[in-house]
Amino acid sequence: MSASSPAELTSPGLGGGLRDIRQSGFLLKLLVRKELKVRYRGSVLGLLWSYVKPGVQFVVFYVALGVFLGLERSARNPEGLPNYAVYLFSGIVLINFFSEALGNASRSIVNNGNLIKKIYLPRELFPVASVWVSAVHFFPQLVVLVAGCLLAGWHPSMFQLLAAVAGFVIVGLLATGLGLLFGSANVYFRDSENLVDMLLMVATWASPVMYAWSMVEAKLGSTWFAIYQANPITIGVELFHYAFWFPTTDGTTAMPPNLFTLWTPLGLVIALAIVILGQFTFRRLEGRFAQEL
Fold first, then answer.
1. pTM over the 0.85 mark
2. Closest residue by Cα to residue 275 from 193, 183, 166, 148
3. Is the N or C terminus of the chain more exposed, i.e. has fewer CB atoms within 10 Å?
């Protein structure tokens, strides 16, 4: 038997990164199933929590902002947003997906420490599986959103449906990249979990989920608004608004300028750059995961 050449040797505990995910599809499915079973073990409602939690969240925000603060357009408030319920819920389902995906991905390595210490498998599977689990919870909410849109007279074009896909992809890539970054950092610095919690709290209000982008532009001016608009979450939410809410309006409400020619490509580039940064950080830190855990 011939000895392996130095070129064939690899550092122990290191794999091919996200490229290994394509070759570990079966393991990814097992991890997703495990996460779902563990999460709903002993639960009475089970997957129905995917409807209950965003439903309660929607009612609270709709009453507080749409009714009390007057963001819903009505005869008494013609300056409000038409079909504010659709506007609000289309943003909530996407921000909930991001919050759950990043929150779980940032804890995925630590929570699976026993498994990581026993066997070797691509460690990127754990943050990626967390994002997939969040996608499983996202699609029931999407069904409810589509049903509400249809009741409001939703007739989307193919371009608007593609905008929804683009928004989901941008936010999904962003959650994956940040999940790799904070998931690996959390092994060494457990303060990362608290930092992620604060980021998620800010993310809910730093994107136009509950208010209109025009309100931000009016208060901040064009320069600061451009910085605000470059946020990939903001871009994803606006793409969802364009896909689900805009077709239910009378067409008099404008979308952010350059949403498709500038902000959508920029959001995709930023999200991909964060995936690369997250993968680079993960690769640098994963060599001592088992020892640190």
1. yes
2. 183
3. N
How far is it, in rounded angstroms, from Cα 147 to Cα 261? 30
Q: Which three-class secondary structure state does DSSP give residue 72?
A: strand
Nearest to 232 by CA among 186, 162, 157, 178: 178
Give the Cα-Cα-Cα angle 107, 145, 157 (nearest 5 degrees).
115
Give the CA dihedral 263, 265, 268, 273, nearest 10 degrees.
-100
Separation of alpha carbons 75 and 92, rounded Å: 26
26 CB burial (10 A radius; 0-12, 13-18, 19+): exposed
pLDDT band at 76 (very low <50, low <70, confident <90, very high): confident
The packing angle between helices 49-61 and 125-151, to 10°, is 60
pLDDT digits (tens, 9 = 90+) for 78-115: 777 888 899 999 999 999 999 999 999 999 888 888 88
| Measured CA angle at 221 (ends 218, 226), to 5 deg | 110
pLDDT in tens, 108-154: 888 888 888 877 778 888 899 999 999 988 988 898 899 989 988 89
The single-letter DSSP state of residue 210 is S
Q: Is 126 helix (H, G, I), strand (E, B) or coil?
A: helix
Pull the structure tokens for residue 222: 């064009």
Domain ranges, ordered by start, for the chain: 18-292
Question: Secondary structure of the chain: what % helix, strand, coil (to 5)?
Answer: 75, 0, 25
